[in-house]
Amino acid sequence: MKRSRLDSVLLYATAILTCALLVFPIYWLVVTALSEPDQLRQLPPKFWPDQPRWGVFAQILAERPILQWLGNSALAAIGAVTLSMTVSVLAGYSLSRFKVRGGQSLGLFILTAKMLPATLLVIPLFGIFRQLELIGSLWSIILAHATLIIPFTTWMLKGYFDTIPRELEQAAMVDGCSPLGAMVRVILPVSAPGLAATALYGFVLSWSDYAYARTFLTNAQTNWTANLGITTMKGEYVSNWSDISAASILVALPILLIYLFLERYLVGGLTAGSDK
User: Fold this and answer.
1) Which pLDDT tens digit goes with each residue over 123-173?
2) Which residues neighbour 113 within 8 Å (Cβ) at sequence distance 6 or greater?
3) End-to-end alpha-carbon separation of the chain, Å?
4) Nearest Cα to 146, choosing from 201, 80, 202, 72?
5) What single string gives the DSSP state of each residue in 94-137?
6) CB within 8 A of 122, min separation 6: which ones?
7) pTM (2 decimals)?
8) Helix 66-97 and helix 192-207: axis angle, to 10°?
9) How many helices (H) and strands (E) does the chain have?
């Protein structure tokens, strides 16, 4: 059906308005980082500073251990994703291929765990980690993040495995593969886009966590993650929002770069199951 001129105008206007609403907070974050702290309190506000402070990023890197915080965030995210993907692949494949009594209920129970807020799990996890002497260690964050990631990634992978024909595994087993060998040699390579999209989702979820890091890493400053480190830049009475905004941009930059490089794989992984 041919679209009328009015429909096209409304469509483009909606798209432009949506993009503006999404991009403006990021733009204002950049403006805040480049402005002098005194300029932030001026009315009416300036939408671009007269003399942008381009050196604020080098200043923040020199004054704060941002790189160490970023390294800790990366280690925690990589560890949580590795653990979560190992468990989720086996769990999702089992739920997809093996029909047992209570299997559907078990799957729904796993999905229900995703609906629990992180604040509800903080207290029992803190007790467990204290018994295991993991408080202050990145291992506590890795294990805690895995509890958040595994429920949803298990269902993501189950849905993806459901779209793959069983004949592929059966043909591999006819050629001599065991069920596990068929999964590793045939199913996982075919599922590469879905695995990449799921892993990226888990990485972002771990990278953006604050609640668990604030609870479990308070005793070890050298193990702070980036989100936790930035909150310590806020003063009790006065805060330098320019420096905080600059640090926030540096912390968000790795995720932005990952999305730019893996965007086509992410979109392909999320939509590939629909056309199998």
Assistant:
1) 888 889 889 888 888 899 999 999 888 888 888 888 888 888 888 888 888
2) 147, 150, 151
3) 27
4) 80
5) HHHH---TTHHHHHHHHHHHHHS-HHHHHHHHHHHHHHTT-TTS
6) 211, 212, 215
7) 0.81
8) 140
9) 13, 0
